[in-house]
Design goal:
The structure is a homodimer.
Chain A: H1 3-19, H2 23-38, H3 40-56, H4 61-67, H5 71-86, E1 94-99, E2 105-112, E3 115-120, H6 125-136, E4 140-144, H7 150-167, E5 174-176, H8 182-189, E6 197-201, H9 204-213, E7 226-230, H10 236-248, E8 257-263, H11 264-279, E9 284-287, H12 289-295, E10 300-301, E11 315-321, H13 324-334, E12 339-343, H14 347-356, E13 361-366, E14 383-385, E15 393-395, E16 401-412
Parallel strand pairs in A: 3-4, 3-6, 4-5, 7-8, 7-12, 8-11, 9-10, 9-11, 12-13
Antiparallel strand pairs in A: 1-2, 2-16, 14-15
Helix pairs in contact in A: 2-5, 2-7, 3-7, 5-6, 10-11
Chain lengths: ~425, ~425
């Protein structure tokens, strides 16, 4: 048995205990919150090593920022864990039930998934966030974070493990793989004997590697090539406001937009207004021929490839379309299936767009930036699924569960 | 583009039409039913070639029986398709919805999965069953059946394709891969660009091959190593009746039992009664030492391997356990997570068993043979999922769907 297989076996064992644990899960989460706050100094010290290594390795300023922890961020991370404790426990919820003619009583009941693997990149706060959500939903978790944050992750995981053990949970409800080699990630992806699901949290490269290599069920998250379509009946001011918000309020996140599609009948009027708003944040535009014709040479000609890109930056692709059908077809071809918006005053076109566009979240007259577990009222979020199986869109505690049927009889045979 | 990639692209295109199709889906299903009946003779002729080839290839009598079609079976298959038309359409169902403080209205709505791949073995009726369920739930389907049934499958698929095209659906809503080589199955498992889910229907060998090779999301089905635990408080007559039914009413199906676990305090009394019932069907018993001691030398000593086996035959493993906890631990170790039963008169033990056993269906005092879409009232069944992601237990139309969020606003930004 390899080290990681051994972790899998221990997680499976721990998950059996967790599956029927009740209030003790909340005690453990509160204990984690307190322990993280009490050990804030030691987390900061471990994080300083990561930051120093990151600087030596030449990480960008934005990566270093994501990596870095201070007292405020650590306390906020701890409070997040306590907040998860305050959410309703999904386990045991009866989702449906009925009595059959033969007298059998059938109930469908929410149960934990079992063991969840999470592969993530440089943000050490994911260690606490993800572990807290998995634990609350009754799952053991095996975390495998990026090498950049390994010292911070080890410190946080050790604190959490000690805290839950003191609360009476098996220590292996939370485990961290300390080996950050590519091989350890690949081995985790193949751990089908022990892992019930694997959730990769990171960029397109990580997600694709997991989809190609995993032997366990995967929930893909977070790649967002999102669109706003400006219909010919759109309120131009509203369109400009939504596009400005969806592109510039936080360009590095998955619910930010990457391409706008503008109906040709409104393009001459709308594009200059939209550009004027975006210019205030120096957004680079990459447009089709018609866009360049209307807006002039400051627009870079877009390549086919640009329409597939998740820029995650102050860059926006622009295309003028002949019809709403062309906009829907463009989205079907290029989108990652995350979030799309139509800006329209037409009832018919709003209905057509929301029915025909096949993405996790489809908006009429609102910014795609709302696709978020917190905004949707889920209380907390483990990620945003862009696949269709099991969970789609923002995933909260319910999406970390499965169900089973419980059938009660008095001797029925078939 | 390979032939199978081309089928994938055509299926994706067809699925976009199907996603918003309403009544036309039912028209197409009725047309399929009628066309199958009208072309019964040609299906029988095609099936005769498969039977002849099967005899030459030395297929067993039971395999030949599964493979063989006659007028009665074909009409029953056709009526099954018409029955699917009569079920409620799951697409468009609003599963939840609310209005946020900022005025945004959020709805979670049922939508099709998109393109479903089905890999199955020698039963040609799966071609019509699976296609009908996929179509009703708004999904395009790519079927890949076993080589033994290829002529029957081609005949049925051609009839279905022509029928749906006449009804106004794209002909490629239903496609059959005619290449029955191992390579064609492997290519289908890797078709992540076009396939939203792959459902293997067959034995453990097929399921494992799919889990190991698939790059697309998979729903595992149908491997059932099921158990009955006879508690020390059990009604012995009831236990014998449930065990007899669960083992012998149809040993070749996944919800039949393979092992019984008997509490040591009741074993001396219960085992002879159970054996007497099973002897009427000449069931071979493979027992632990204690079982052999109680029942004598007619019981074959069980190996460790026997407890992992899905015999699918008149063979039953027997083990005497010291406690309900040992029974639960045995099931956790050896079960495939399909269906398990406790026979007990104890409220406490019934609660403990149903809470602690982590399988798709957990029974108190009833035969595991009830784990079935029809018995559970789903109307029809595409298979029985033994995984925890997306669907667990019998899968009906709802399990062939996904959801999306539709968010309606009037200019909200974040």
């Amino acid at each position: 048995m390899t080290a990681i297989e051994n972790m899998g076996a221990k997680a499976k064992e721990a998950s059996r205990f967790l599956a029927t644990a009740g209030k003790i899960k909340n005690d453990a989460l509160i204990a984690i919150c307190n322990a993280i706050k009490e050990n804030c100094e030691s987390i900061i010290k471990a994080n300083e090593i990561d930051i120093e290594n990151g600087k030596k390795a030449g990480l960008t300023a934005s990566l270093l920022d994501r990596l870095s922890l201070n007292e405020q961020r650590i306390f906020s991370m701890a409070d997040g864990v306590a907040q998860v404790a305050s959410l309703a426990d999904p386990i045991g919820t009866v989702l449906s039930g009925n009595r059959l003619e033969n007298g059998l009583k059938i109930q469908r009941v929410r149960v934990p998934l079992g063991v969840i693997g999470i592969i993530f990149e440089a943000r050490p706060n994911v260690t606490a966030d993800a572990a807290a959500l998995c634990l609350k939903a009754g799952n053991a978790v095996i975390l495998r974070g990026g090498k950049e944050a390994i010292n911070s992750n080890k410190a946080i995981a050790d604190i959490m493990r000690n805290a839950i053990e003191k609360s009476g949970l098996p220590i292996d409800c939370i485990q961290l793989i300390e080996d950050t080699s590519r091989e350890s990630a690949t081995e985790l992806m193949g751990l089908s004997q022990y892992l019930d699901v694997l959730i990769p949290r990171g960029g397109a490269g990580l997600i694709n590697a997991v989809v190609q290599n995993a032997k366990v069920p995967v929930i893909e998250t977070g790649v967002g090539n999102c669109h706003v379509y400006v219909d010919k009946t759109a309120d131009i001011e509203m369109a400009a406001s939504i596009i400005f918000n969806a592109k510039t309020s936080r360009p590095s996140v998955c619910n930010a937009i990457e391409t706008i599609l503008v109906h040709k009948a409104i393009a001459e009027k709308a594009l200059p207004v939209i550009k004027e708003r975006l210019d205030t944040k120096s957004v680079e535009l990459r447009g089709c021929e018609e866009t360049v014709r209307i807006l002039g040479d400051s627009v870079i000609p877009a390549t086919e490839d640009d329409y597939y890109k998740e820029f995650l930056d102050y860059i926006l692709a622009v295309r003028v379309v002949d019809s709403i059908d062309e906009a829907i077809a463009h989205i079907a071809k290029y989108s990652s299936g995350h979030s799309e918006c139509i800006v329209t005053e037409s009832y018919e076109n709003a209905e057509k767009f929301t029915q025909s566009v096949d993405s996790a979240a489809v908006y009429v007259n609102a910014s795609t930036r709302f696709t978020d577990g917190g905004e949707f009222g889920l209380g907390a979020e483990i990620g945003i699924s862009t696949q269709k199986l099991h969970a789609r869109g923002p995933m909260g505690l319910n999406e970390l569960t499965s169900t089973k049927f419980i059938i009660s009889g008095n001797g029925q045979v078939r």
